[in-house]
Design goal:
The protein is built from 20 helices and 25 strands. Strand 6 and strand 7 form a beta hairpin. Helix 7 packs parallel to helix 19 and helix 10 runs antiparallel to helix 11. The protein is about 40% helix and about 25% strand. By secondary structure, it is an alpha+beta fold.
């Protein structure tokens, strides 16, 4: 997979996630598409409330409930009616709440709960001690929609009926939930947008005291002036909202622009240089580099880091030692009891005393010494290696050998200075730094915005976008942000074309290697490139039996030695996979949102 295809894949993946992340509704659900509220302001300081809640039920429900908060107020002359269903109701005073439970039925006998219906429930009552009477003004502060509703109120239409609209001032808090408001004679009509669950929508109104009785027995008397303080409080609140809106808008722009940083980094540091190399495949081994080096630079997997050898490289080093005769291969029949007598092959490494291990590179010495540690009388049993590496302690020792092997390769052949001749990591490093910082910023903005919705709604969405982009940046393969040098680009292209040749049977059949020795070398580098099985099959189909039997490399594969060793080494790096777990009423001026009424409700 090249860069363009990978970037296309990431784009399609993000689009798919955004589609499938849309909310899915359960079979039993309900909504409140509309809520009508009528408030009649009475001259004794009380109000008459009429609320009609329009429910839409999907599934079977037994009823609904409504909680009315009390803080010195009283609910009197309550009447509950329904349209679209038969109903009964009970009222429980819970100290700070008036709990109204409404049972809904589909039949007149009131035995069958409702299913898939739209029902209107109307609550009508008198509400005392709601209006505050100051020395200079009367104030109605009332939550038209409280924060205790279990679902969103998709739309609310309220009518506030007064004796006169003359001299009345009003505010709607928070103002972003107000879709429209206007006077219609002496009635104020308010229409809201969707009010999410957990949020409130409040009316605050200053009314001349001349509209009330001289002694409003059902009002709250407060001996102080309040009009100027309330107006200043509302002005400060609006200024605060304006500042937050500006701040979050600016922050949203910054977050969105930040999402393009990886693209800018890629444009500057990730585009590959153009090379003149045009060959379709490579028949000859492109270079004499040890297979572990080829694996570290050109190994399989688009997400693989350049300059990081992996287990394929370790196995290829073993194969290379076999090819160079540091080890020879032998096999012995072994009998296993089953439903009948079954014959299999046990594979052995034999040390070649004519080969001097002192001539090996450091990383090759680590592999040689690891295998030699299992030697007995010059012979190394693969069965013994497999059995040993199933032990957690032995597996940990092998993990150390493996890390030492990697370290020796990087120190001698692929340190930072030498790697820069092949691949430049600056772009990838910048993208990873962006990813780390971006996730931290996204988390901070998300949680700050969470407590300031919906003013911060755009910033929250932008923080999510930044978080996704940052997360993708952290897992982007090094080859996306990084860049091959001209030499490195051609080096990788040649080895990938060589891999194409050795894994395409039609090509290798048309242009076969000239000798078994070349086949063996192919098998070594095929192991480094993650394609050993394809070459082994090509050898089996292309060469006569006598040549195959003379090849230690082929016989090592043919009798399963390679796979036994590979599984043993993989198990050695992950011992827990084979051995289980190895280890363990207020008489003062009310603040914004301090109005009476509100509450909430739900369904059951």
């Amino acid at each position: 997979m090249d860069k363009k295809h990978f970037i296309s894949f990431i784009f399609i993946f993000l689009v798919a996630v955004s589609i499938y992340a849309s909310p899915a509704f359960a079979d039993n659900s309900y909504s409140i598409p509309l809520m009508n509220v009528d408030l009649f302001v009475l001259d004794d300081g009380s109000i008459h409330v009429k609320e009609t809640v329009h429910y839409s039920f999907q599934g079977t429900f037994h009823g609904v409930y409504r909680d009315i908060p009390l803080n010195g107020q009283q609910v009197e002359n309550l009447k509950v009616t329904s349209s679209g269903a038969y109903s009964t109701y009970t009222v429980t005073n819970q100290g700070k709440n008036e709990h109204i439970k409404v049972n809904l039925y589909s039949d007149a006998a009131k035995t069958t709960p409702i299913t898939d219906k739209s029902v209107d429930v109307t609550y009508e009552y008198d509400f005392t001690h709601v209006i505050k009477f100051y020395n200079d003004i009367a104030e109605l502060q009332y939550k038209l929609v409280g924060s205790g509703w279990s679902v969103d109120i998709e739309k609310m239409v309220a009518n506030i009926h007064l004796n006169s609209s003359s001299g009345v001032k009003y505010w709607l808090n928070p103002p972003y939930y107000a879709e429209n408001s206007f006077w219609k004679g002496n009635d104020l009509q308010v229409t809201s947008t969707n009010i999410p669950t957990g949020n409130y929508f409040e009316l605050r109104m200053l009314i001349p005291k001349s509209q009330f009785l001289t002694n409003p027995t059902n009002g709250i008397i407060i001996n102080q002036n309040a009009a100027a303080s309330i107006e200043q409080m509302q002005a400060n609140y609006q200024n605060q909202l304006n500042f937050k809106h500006l701040l979050y808008s600016f922050l949203s722009v910054i977050l969105i622009l930040a999402c393009f940083i990886p693209c800018i980094v890629y444009w500057k540091y990730g585009r590959e240089p153009k090379i003149n190399y045009q060959a379709e495949y490579e028949r000859d081994i492109p270079s004499n580099d040890p297979p572990a080096i080829v694996n570290a630079i050109c190994g399989p997997g688009f997400s693989k880091k350049i300059g990081e050898p992996d287990m394929d490289g370790f196995k290829a080093t073993i194969m290379d030692l076999i090819d160079r005769k540091y080890f020879t291969i032998s096999s012995k029949d072994s009998e296993k009891e089953g439903y009948g007598l079954e014959v299999s092959k046990s594979i052995f490494f034999n040390l070649n005393p004519s080969k001097d291990p002192e001539k090996l590179n450091d990383f090759e010495s680590h592999v040689y010494n690891f295998l030699k540690s299992f030697e007995e009388n010059g012979t190394i049993s693969l069965d013994e290696i497999s059995s040993s590496l199933s032990n957690p302690e032995e597996a940990r020792i092998f993990s150390g050998t493996y890390l030492n092997w990697k370290g020796a390769i990087k120190t001698q052949f692929l340190n930072d200075e030498k790697l820069q001749e092949v691949f430049l990591k600056k772009g990838d490093s910048l993208i990873k730094i962006f990813g780390t910082v971006g996730i931290i910023v996204a988390i901070i903005v998300f949680f700050v915005s969470l407590f300031d919705l919906p003013v911060a709604g755009s910033a929250m969405l932008c923080s999510i976008a930044l978080g996704v982009v940052s997360g993708v940046s952290l897992i982007l393969p090094q080859k996306i942000g990084g860049q091959w040098t001209t030499y490195g680009e051609e080096y990788d292209a040649k080895w990938q074309n060589f891999k194409k040749y050795i894994t395409d049977f039609s090509l290798i059949k048309e242009y076969p290697p000239e000798s078994i020795k070349i086949w063996n070398k192919y098998l070594v580098y095929a192991t480094a490139l993650g394609s050993a099985e394809a070459v082994r099959k090509a050898m089996e189909l292309s060469l006569p039996t006598d040549q195959l039997e003379s090849s230690d490399m082929f016989m090592f594969h043919y009798y399963g030695g390679y796979y036994l060793l590979a599984s043993s080494l993989d198990m050695g790096m992950n011992p827990s996979s084979a051995n289980g777990d190895v280890g363990d009423i207020v008489g003062t001026i009310g603040d914004i949102g301090g109005g009476f009424g509100g509450g909430g409700g739900g369904a059951f």
